[in-house]
Amino acid sequence: METGEGAEVALDGSAVAADATEPAESIPAQGTAAPKKTATGAVVLAIGLPGSGKSSWFKRHNIIPLSSDLMRTLLFDDVAEQRYQDLVFSSLRALLRSRMIAKRPMNFVDATNLSPKERHSWIKLANDFGYEAHAVFFDVPTEVCMDRNRKRQRNVPEEIMQRMAAKLKPPAFEEGFAKITVVRLKR
After folding, report:
1. pLDDT confidence band for 36 (50 / 70 / 90)
2. How many CA atoms lie within 13 A of 181 on its CB side?
3. What is the C-alpha R_g of the chain?
4. Angle CA(5)–CA(7)–CA(183) in degrees, nearest 5?
5. 8 within domain boundaries
6. Which residue segment(s) compose the domain that 131 sits in?
7. What is the CATH number of the domain that holds 95?
8. d(Cα 85, Cα 137) in Å, to the nearest integer?
9. pTM for this structure?
10. How far apart are CA 81 and CA 84, in angstroms?
11. What is the DSSP string of 48-77?
12. Is residue 4 a part of any domain in this protein?
């Protein structure tokens, strides 16, 4: 599987090495006051198409995320099982909730999280427990993701990839993110 190398970019445009262990710092949300209370930690949502490099990024940073693929494997012994999405994501949210009850400071969620609507429940859950919501957006061209997807042993059908690409919206501070990191391909 081709993973490619990426460059992390803060929203101010500064680049961070692809092998950096810390996400790039981003600019604070415009027009918002500084938080009065220190957050308990962070819930970091990966956002990107299949093949955009999310799982490879986690591996490169030695992070074991909560992932929809992991849930499918644990629940059904089959990472490709797609029939029970509600069960997969309710289980994923329950695991995240458990980690926040245990006061784990950093929590990573590896799923596509394509639209603000899909991200809303994660952001609300984080905030309900006093955690900040962060985003790592994989800004990789659709054509690159589709090419990588074709080379995978387990791939997403092209028509579904096209639908997903049409649904993908970059994260915005207005959604409730305290920090947004953008990961792009190195040129």
Report:
1. low
2. 21
3. 16
4. 100
5. no
6. 40-185
7. 3.40.50.300
8. 22
9. 0.79
10. 7
11. --TTSSHHHHHHHTT---EEHHHHHHHHHS
12. no
